[in-house]
Automatic annotation (TrEMBL):
Residue span of region Disordered: 206-236
Cited InterPro entries: FecR
Signal sequence, start to end: 1-24
Entry protein name: FecR domain-containing protein
Highest taxon above the source species: Bacteria
Natural source organism: Massilia forsythiae
Keyword terms: Signal
Domain FecR protein: 56-157
Length: 464
């Protein structure tokens, strides 16, 4: 009987604990949203509460600004996914504060709140390949499945790849021999971590900065440093849209011509009749050279194992416009006459070139890379509906995997399809149309083969 009573009490306690854990704590609230954005399976709306563990996602045009419970700021830019895994604040005893973010893909900005500044040792920001700790900080992060890059706006960060004692399950910064620090004083520099790499690499130059990969909106709060090292003097986390409108109106008023005083009306003076003069004939100007059509630069930009880059990305970005970056592949547009999508008609393309690799992720920073071939490619664009469809097969190690996608065509020829959470067999892709070479197209892509394998690559097409 006693054993039965004890068992009953234990079961009741277990149910009570489970019920208590089912109610996640509030981590913050949404203060601004634009475009496609969601919390869990619901559209994101201003004023909504964000709870621990909820999946946050933005579409290709989406932005999400979250004010945390301790007056911090967390921003997701387009095409991003993240979670606030934990946001437990103990103002009475900061040692008990626990804060943990997870950026699954895309670009995010994190500005430390009041509680984080008091318990920096208990803050962790994870990506698929790296752990980030803070020194009282405002920073931005880009990540995909294979590479993360961190830039600091104020304060400093400590970054380490997942290896040895540094694991995604940990809390606080991974301080160790392989960790590297970056401060706001190191302007124009980044820390980069690739999968399987314990020690981050310091990159000079801002060509790959998260703010260039996914620029902030003009109303995103600006970071302002104070005299204290690593401090931040800005508490304004609400986009000041009204102030921008007032400034614009004031600017217009300043440019308006001043009123002129009235002048007395005098009788018009009499003038003699004009004497005819010969009309000068303007010299014939030589024809101006026709500007060439803008073209496409595409391919691998980063080396992994024996797979060498096709070009040096910072050099190409100094000459051309960066359109998209996905894993190890980049897409740029060369200067020239802009592509303008027609209002109707359709066109098909033939696959001319492609590059791809398959990543197999075994966890804990262990992965392998295998070459892949792209075959049976199809790409069709319908300008009337502003849409496109594409498909191909990935061939690797004797296996074949079909992939497909459908998406939108912008007026300047950009192609967009998919979300980071696309199911197996569907592509996330970003591409570009061009009139160069009689009509061409290219896109970079990633897709999930199964729970362990992903494909990353690029394709180039010519008009049929």
């Amino acid at each position: 009987m006693l054993r039965h009573q004890i068992a009953t009490i234990v079961i009741a306690c277990a149910w009570a604990c489970a019920a208590q854990g089912a109610y996640a704590a509030d981590a913050g609230r949404i203060i601004f949203t634009s475009g496609k954005a969601s919390i869990g399976d619901q559209p994101a709306v201003e004023g909504a509460r964000v709870q621990e563990g909820q999946l946050l996602a933005t579409g290709n045009d989406g932005y999400l600004y979250i004010k945390t419970v301790d007056n911090g700021l967390f921003i997701l830019r387009p095409g991003s996914r993240a979670r606030i895994d934990a946001y437990h604040v103990d103002n009475a005893d900061p040692a008990n504060t626990r804060v943990k973010f997870e950026l699954l893909g895309g670009v995010a900005r994190s500005k430390s709140g009041d509680a984080v500044k008091q318990a920096r040792q208990n803050f962790r920001f994870n990506t698929p390949v790296a752990a980030i700790g803070v020194r009282g900080t405002d920073f931005t992060v880009f990540t995909d499945e294979h590479t993360s890059r961190v830039a600091v706006l104020t304060g400093g960060v400590v970054v380490s790849g997942f290896a040895g004692a540094c694991s995604p399950a940990g809390s606080g910064p991974c301080d160790g021999a392989a960790s590297r620090e970056l401060s706001a004083a190191q302007r124009g520099q980044l820390l980069q971590v690739t999968r399987g790499q314990a020690a981050p690499q310091l990159l000079s130059g801002s060509a790959l900065a998260p703010d260039l990969v996914s620029p902030p909106r003009t109303d995103e709060p600006v970071a302002k440093t104070d005299a204290a090292a690593g401090g931040s003097s800005t508490n304004a986390v609400t986009p000041n849209l009204e102030a921008k409108k007032v400034a614009a109106l004031n600017s217009i008023a300043e440019q308006a011509p001043a009123a002129q005083p009235l002048q007395p009306v005098l009788p018009a003076p009499t003038t003699p009749a004009p004497v005819p003069v010969p009309v000068a004939v303007a010299p014939v100007q030589p024809d101006q050279p026709v500007q060439p059509d803008s073209g496409i630069v595409w391919g691998r930009w980063q080396q992994v194992d024996a797979y060498y880059p096709k070009f040096h990305l910072p050099t190409e970005m100094s000459k051309n416009e960066l359109i998209a970056l996905d894993g190890d592949y980049a897409l740029l547009r060369t200067p020239g006459r802009d592509f303008v999508a027609p209002n109707n008609g359709a066109v098909g393309f033939t696959l001319r070139e492609a590059e791809a690799v398959v990543y197999t992720d075994y966890g804990y920073g262990s992965f392998t890379v295998a070459p892949a071939t792209v075959a049976n490619g199809r790409l069709n664009v319908d300008f009337g509906s502003r849409g496109f469809t594409t498909s191909f097969d990935i061939l690797s190690k004797g296996e074949s995997f079909p992939f497909q996608a459908s998406g939108t065509v912008d007026t300047d020829g950009r192609l967009n399809a998919g979300e980071q959470s696309s199911p197996k067999g569907y592509l996330n892709l970003q591409g570009l149309l061009s009139n160069d070479k009689g009509g061409s197209a290219a896109y970079i892509f990633n897709g999930r083969i199964d729970d362990m394998r992903r494909v990353n690559g690029a394709t180039y097409w010519q008009k049929r």
